[in-house]
Amino acid sequence: MTVNDNGITSTSINGNAIEFQSICKRFGSTLANDKVSFAVKAGEVHAIVGENGAGKTTLMRILYGLHKPDSGTIYVRGKEARIESPKDAIALGIGMVQQHFALIKRFTVAENIILGQEGSKFYISREKGNKLIAELSRSFDLSVDPEARIEELSVGEQQRVELLKVLYRKADIIILDEPTAVLTPQEIESLYATIERMKASGKTIIFITHKLKEVFRVADTITVMRGGRSIATMSVAEVTPQELSELIIGKELRVRGEQRVEPKNTEALVVENLVVLGERGNEVLKGLNLVLKENELLGIAGVEGNGQTELVEALCGLRRAVNGRIMLFGHELTGTPPWLLRSKGIAHIPEDRLSSGMIDEFTVYENLILGYQTEFSRAGLLQKNEIMNETAKLMDEYDIRPRDLEVKMKNLSGGNQQKVVIARELRKNPKVLIANQPTRGLDVGAALFVHNKLLEAKSKGSVLLISSDLDEIMELSDRIAVIYEGRIVGEFDKKDKVEDIGSAMLGGKGEYA
Amino acid sequence: MPELDREEAKRAAAPIVSLAIAFIIGGIIVALIGKNPLDAYISIFRGAFEDWGFTLFWATSLIFSALAVAIAFHCGLFNIGANGQLMMGALAATYFSLRFSGVPGAILMPTVVFAALCAGAFWGFIPGVLKAKRGTNEVVVTIMMNYIAISAVSYALTYPMKDPGSWIAQSAPLPESLLFPRIGNTLGTDPMVFVAILMAVLSYIFLWRSRMGYELRAVGFNQLASAHSGIRVNRIITLTMCLSGAIAALSYFNYLFAYQYRAISDVLVGTNVGFDAITAALLANNNPVMVLLSSLLLAILYSGGLTAQFELGVPSSFYLFLEGIIIFSMVVFSVILGGKND
Ligand SMILES: Nc1ncnc2c1ncn2[C@@H]1O[C@H](COP(=O)(O)OP(=O)(O)OP(=O)(O)O)[C@@H](O)[C@H]1O
Ligand SMILES: [Mg+2]
């Protein structure tokens, strides 16, 4: 038994950091956790996997004191623990990085880390705090400037700040809820490195993910959840990826429909010499050219921050083109405001569903008509019956759970929220679908379903797919365009080598991770 | 109890708990000044009930402005300017009534209402369009608009619109054909109370059944997602402020046409209805139908407060005091609820 510097015993007699015993949690008619029981050994990396809505986030929020279980017991290092609030969890050495970060945008990194620290003194010397942060950054491979404001940081950097916050509070059991969903491949690599370091220093890590590749890359043990229950806990060595994915969805994973429509020669969307300015007034797109053919799925590959966001915003009418033009089937589209674009047949799955794809205080049915409310109104009044019928249909088709039309969007699991957004954008068979990270947060089954849906959308129109997941792009695209520093620098066939694409993504200047 | 229901229940309980807190602290204060708190409250409610006409009269004014505040709130806008909007509405109504006093009432009244709606809408339009186009804080602008309205009203009633035969700054008497009948005892109320109830129902339908209400609430919750979905955010913000101002503009109609029969500068400028409306909207959680209840409750405290002052010598500022505590506890509540909502 070892005791670390803050007096918390890091290994208990039976070696379990956490043990869940028969945890139940009900939300209205949904049983989110149903007699969940399993143990997390001290010092291991424990992956929790399972379908969308399986209850993973709920269980972790219970462990961190954000929800109260209806029944069941949690043992922390062998002792029964009563965790009423995050304060209790922190006192027990438990930390959590949630999917949406809880950082104050106007404050600096250091202020965010030090503030709200339990038991902090009224005044903390800046140097002392910065020194501690620098030390933590170094020892856990979490490079970030302590003096930078949160609003200046990328998503990956913000996540590092959250991790530093947890480490600063001396947590040794660390929960990460889908940490890689929002990261670029490079950032994912560096997160892996951090996880290794944390593990090496004796910390226990619990992390939720939908990407099986990651499970096999970093986890020691896996727990599978389905329908609110924990159905299996095993070591990674005992299972193959194929077996694991079948365990997760409870059946064999259907393979992709292989009959693909060949692209026509008609040009659906043409972007010519597009120049767009970024937030700071600098040119972010520097004369971008792009052609999307009818019935084509064009993948845009590139390292995040090379103009993808601005390209999508320009195509959606949310960012002004200072030069160049956008054409849809030969008609000029440049400068068309967003409310007209929809009627012209352009749909958009935004990259960040929470901030720009949905309204979390609205119900599911209200979210399913967002942007199409005119279609569902007569004489200025919403036609609730029509909306409800359509909603019920879409919820069945897209398997959105729970099957409750009036549930608030914020009470859906992350993956189910994503399904709502996708269902809405695909419903009208758009002429051009702009799909930005469409499978973010989806389980393996749902991701496959959405892939098939994208192929279907392509057979009825055309699709522009932007994704940081190169595998996804390679699998689905007819053609791949690589974006680099605001220009398309290369076009590839799916028969081309991944290495060549990777190298183009770095401007031809190196090896892609 | 399931978590979902608990959170909703807490939100619903906030007004009741705030009222209870206000009544308890109010009671303690009454006891401290040497009166019996129970007597004071009995006197308030009995008084309000006996003078039910006046209580309803007061509630009517409040309902319009509170609906204005509530609707703006659903769009994420804090309209502190109901007071100025109602003044401009009253001024326009007075002007048109007197200018076309020869026209038969059946034609003139709709014209007068329309003029008032336009004036209120314009007073909402300015902060709305500034917010939409320039991002100017609507709280600051509506407060400024309140001051401008005060100056405009006192100027108009002191100079161009002043009744030449009068000693004080007030308009000429309004045409007989426009005056409302009185309903009830003492001061009495008037048909505007029915218009107010109708307006609350319409507002409810507007917010939850109409397309624009949907867009307005979408903008109130998430501007970015609204913009992405093709909702014209700037237009919605501007229109909402216009609508809010237009509704507020009806707040003073019962004073004009059923009570004072003319616009009296000092009274109009001294009105506080647009601010009491914020309390009413807050208490009603911005639900238009609940606004009817909260406005009635505030009207009871006000009208009964006058009785209590008369009978027991409870200071008339007692009403303001209670109102202050209600606002304070509601704000504390929303901070607590907001904080839990991570
Ligand atoms: N606050 C809440 N109120 C009502 N229902 C909720 C609430 N939080 C979660 N749920 C429901 O509980 C179930 C489990 O949700 P949870 O978020 O734990 O799933 P998850 O396994 O994390 O899924 P995902 O992989 O999609 O993130 C879902 O059906 C969800 O709708
Ligand atoms: Mg989740």
Largest interface (C-beta under 8 Å): A-B, 37 and 24 residues
The arrangement of helices and strands of chain B along the chain is HHHHHHHHHHHHHHH
Determine the strand fraction of chain A and express it as a percent band: 25-35%
As laid out across the biggest beta sheet of chain A, the strand order is 6-7-8-3-9-10
How far is the first residue's CA from the last residue's CA of chain B? 20 Å
Number of helices of chain B: 15
N-C termini distance of chain A: 40 Å
Write the CATH homologous superfamily of the largest domain in chain A. Answer: P-loop containing nucleotide triphosphate hydrolases
Backbone CA Rg of chain A: 24 Å
Write down how many β-strands of chain B occur, each being a DSSP E stretch of 2 or more residues. Answer: 0
Could you tell me the mean pLDDT of chain B? 91
Protein model, in words:
Chain A contains 17 helices and 22 strands. Chain A has helices at 56-63, 86-91, 109-114, 126-140, 155-168, 185-200, 212-218, 241-249, 308-315, 338-341, 353-357, 364-368, 384-397, 414-426, 444-460, 470-476, 498-505; strands spanning 16-27, 30-41, 45-50, 71-76, 79-81, 94-97, 173-177, 204-208, 221-226, 229-235, 267-277, 283-293, 297-301, 321-328, 331-332, 346-349, 377-378, 381-382, 432-436, 462-466, 479-484, 487-493. In chain A, the strands form five sheets. Chain A has a six-stranded mixed sheet, with helices on both faces. A six-stranded mixed sheet of chain A has the order 16-19-20-13-21-22, with helices on both faces. In chain A, helix 14 packs parallel to helix 15. Chain A is globular and about 70 Å long. The model of chain A is unreliable at 1-13 (pLDDT under 50). Chain B has a domain at 61-289. Chain B has helices at 3-32, 37-50, 52-74, 82-99, 105-134, 138-158, 192-209, 211-221, 223-228, 233-248, 253-260, 265-269, 273-283, 288-312, 318-340. In chain B, helix 2 packs across helix 3 (52-74) and helix 5 (105-134) runs antiparallel to helix 10. The model of chain B has no long low-confidence stretch (mean pLDDT 91). The A-B interface holds A 26-28, 66-68, 98, 102, 316, 318, 337-342, 348, 350, 355-362, 366, 370-371, 373-374, 377, 380-382, 384, 411 and B 2-5, 209-212, 214-215, 217-218, 221-222, 224-232, 342. The structure holds adenosine-5'-triphosphate and magnesium ion. Adenosine-5'-triphosphate is lined by residues 27-28, 30, 32, 50, 52-58, 401-402, 411-416, 443 of chain A.
